[in-house]
Structures are given as structure tokens and as C-alpha cells.
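Lab notebook, bench 4. The sequencing result for the construct came back, and we need a structural model before the next group meeting so we can plan mutations. Quick request posted to the team channel:

Model the 3D structure of this chain.
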Amino acid sequence: MGLVSRIIQSLEVTHEPNLTLTQELIANDDLLPVEPEKRTWRAYNYVAFWIADMFSINMWMVVSSMIQLGLSWWQAWICVWLGQGIATPFLVLNARPGAIFHVTFPIVNRTSFGIFGSLWCVFNRAAMAWCAVLPSQ
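Done. Here's the predicted structure in C-alpha cell form:
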């Protein structure tokens, strides 16, 4: 077995034998609701995650761009809080199904976009995550 074949085999997710690609997309262990013993996040974890997001490099870049464009520090600060305040209700509404039913992001998207349409949302989320990593490099 060649090196490339071994690498591909090590990256494969275990699955039931003799299933088509469509059947694998419909159901696998990663798409099942999260089991109660694996639900380890508490309220403080969510608050800490939110604070870490607000004090990220991207947020500092946004604020510094506002200051460079002529806003004072307190005007930029108010703009950031206003932006976060406007975005927060939509983020909470987007996260609500996952928090209530303990399902992952792809499953929530399937309710709106279908099995194959939800792949676009997953790809888009991955691309946006990569764009968030780039400024910190």
C-alpha cells in the first residue's frame, strides 16, 4: 500500500460497510444528538467563549480601523457594542435548536436547506472560520 493510500485510509471516518454516499450523508454517529454525558459546557463556558470572541484580533482590527477612519475611541467602542447588540439576538436564535435538541450545526441546516443544500452552509462556515484565522497569522 502506497503512502497516499495510507494517508487517505487514516483520514477516513469509520462507517457501515456497503452504504452508498447518500446513505452515509443521511445518518452517521456525528449527526446523532449529543449524549447527556458528553454535554460538558455550562453557562460560564458560553460566557467565556463570548468574551474571548469579543477580545479577538479581528475585533481589535475592526476598532483600530474605525479609529483610523476618524472616530474617537469611545465612538468606536459604542459602535462595537451596538454591532454586538444587533447581532446577538440572531446568533441566539440560530443556536437555539442546537441548544434545545442537542443536535449539531449540519442537522439544524438540514431542516431549512435539505441534505445536499446544507452542505453549502457547512462549506460557508468553514470558509468564514478560515478567514477569521488569517488575520492572526
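The helical segments are 3-11, 21-26, 43-54, 57-68, 73-101, 105-133.
Will bring this to the meeting.
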